[in-house]
Design brief:
The protein is 34% helix and 12% strand. The C terminus is likely disordered.
Length: 234
């Protein structure tokens, strides 16, 4: 049967052919033989199968208007604007050793501002190492100066370890308060340490949490914005 293409096959839907019997038949491009690409207005020969056209052969060239339309590329999809929100980019760390020295000196009793996670754990890592080293030195000095007791055990007097412990009370407290500020929490939560069993564990969880990128009442994030300023225990 012969017919005329009313609509070409496209992503918008199947093509349509008006047969010489006056009926409309749907078709898809896979049913077109000889590699032809059908356009509206083109004369074709096909086999009707119910409401579907199969084994379609083009009998002539497509009208000039249809060819021109087919040659015109689809307009490019408009580019979507970049999202206004971008993930915060962390600032490079100053180094764990630098954080340790800074906490013991410049920030010795600095309860204002915020401390990033790396600063807190850098300080405590080297504090633990220092305790081990000083305790070993205390043992060596104690044995050298005081010898052993009647049972042969060394008389250990941890002078250096004790002095270092006393010196670290304020720095350890201040950096914990600033770490809480970094979560936009009150520095008074450091008193959780006095709750038996669970208080220290809850505080430890806070110490593992990442910096809040947004500026809060204690200042900008030291990890995502750079500086430290601001309020105390509030």
């Amino acid at each position: 049967m012969r017919g005329e293409v009313l609509k070409a096959d496209s992503p918008d839907g199947a093509g349509l052919i008006l047969g010489e019997d006056g009926r409309r038949y749907q078709f898809s491009q896979v049913q077109v033989r000889n590699g032809s690409v059908l356009q509206a207005g083109q004369t074709v020969d096909f086999v009707s199968m119910g409401e579907e056209a199969r084994d379609i052969y083009a009998l002539g060239a497509a009208p000039a208007a249809a060819q021109a339309a087919a040659a015109t590329p689809y307009p490019a999809a408009p580019s979507m604007p970049a999202p206004a929100y971008a993930a915060p980019v962390p600032q490079p760390s100053d180094g764990l050793w630098t954080y340790f020295i800074r906490t013991l000196t410049k920030n010795f009793a600095q309860f204002n501002g915020r401390a990033r996670r790396a600063e807190y754990w850098g300080y405590f890592l080297f504090v633990i190492i220092a305790y081990v080293v000083l305790f070993i030195v205390d043992i060596v000095l104690s044995v050298s100066l005081y010898g052993t007791d009647q049972y042969g055990d060394p008389n250990i007097i941890p002078v250096l370890t004790g002095l270092f412990y006393i010196y670290n009370i304020l720095p350890g407290l201040s950096i914990t308060v600033r770490r809480l500020h970094d979560q936009d929490l009150s520095g008074w939560l450091v008193l959780l340490n006095f709750i038996p069993y669970v208080g220290g564990f809850i505080l430890l969880v806070f110490m593992f949490m990442d910096s809040k990128p947004a500026t809060n009442k204690h200042g900008p994030s030291p990890k995502y914005a750079g500086a430290m300023t601001a309020d105390t225990f509030a």
